[in-house]
From TrEMBL:
Biological source species: Telluria antibiotica
Keyword Transmembrane: yes
Keywords in alphabetical order: Membrane, Transmembrane, Transmembrane helix
Entry's transmembrane regions: 30-54, 60-79, 108-130, 142-162, 208-227, 233-251, 287-307, 313-332, 339-356
Source domain of life: Bacteria
Record-given protein name: ABC transporter permease
Tagged with keyword Iron: no
Lineage: Bacteria, Pseudomonadati, Pseudomonadota, Betaproteobacteria, Burkholderiales
Amino acid sequence: MTHPYTRFRLLLARHAVAELAARLRGAAEIAMFVLGPLIVGLIAFAALPAMLAAAEPLPLALPLLCLHGIAMSLPVVLLRPRVVPAHVRAWLHPLPVPQGMLVRASSAVAALLAAPLALAYAASLAIWLYQRPDWLLPARAIAGTVLSFLLTWACATALLVHGAGLPPRARRTPQEAAADTHPATPRAGGFYFWHRLFWLPLWRRSSAGVRQCALAAATVGAAALWMMGPQSLPRVAGAIVTSIVLVMLAYEADLALRTQLARVRVLAAAWPIDAAALARRARAMTLLAMAPAPAALTVIGTAAGAWHGTASHLYLALAWGVAPVLTLTPPFTTRGRMALVAFAIVLLCAFGSKLWD
């Protein structure tokens, strides 16, 4: 019989997943309508990295599989604040929950979160085992994929144990809070207000900053695999993944900026500052913060000799232009903005797939 603590953690995780799915429902509908065939193709490549790693000699295969398994658990870092919210963690911490129970409950939640990945791996394995390419070693491919998934599950469990078992942050004294709100030496200037009102909330009040860093790193990694990866990795798949992650980075940064701007406008209505100038400065700093991702893509493509021909020039222009377009356009509706995101992804995928033709 399941322990009440485990049932509560699972119920909390299901509620968080359902809430996230409801928020992304509009985006998912547009993505399935526009990118349906591409998404099916990406599912077919879900287990490809693990299968390619398993085909290597054993001394190289094991480290590659370990790296793949650890990397696939990183999304749990982004989901953890939803699965174990701070206020629930503060309430759960004083309870006399044994360490073993905490591990078992976290393992069950990790299994719930990793279930879609397991299904994608199973579908991908079935497709590749049916096709049987020359490089595929069936037994090692299955074993390598299972090993990678088990390592992902174990890492996700460890991350959830760490998130649920930490004590709540110590409350600051009123004197410290007053000193943080009203510094002893007030400073004026646009950068100071941007740092206080836009930069710090990315890291202190939400996981938006972590998500943007993860997406930026994923963009650079996907671009490197696309441009300089092994010949067995399809170029089209690299173009699709790089394009999607690049656009999602711009969308995530734009969403965080607009959400914070809506909060700041209400607060700044009574302040003696130019709110419009503050908004322009915040947009400019957001664009500057997003510039390293397309810059890294440009450098990697230049090193690989990819930027030649009309398609490559159009791709590069779109890669640099997607962030300004999302950031500087009117808000529209949620569906309108997601349609713009989907259109940008389709264009980038179309031009990126022609890069090596």
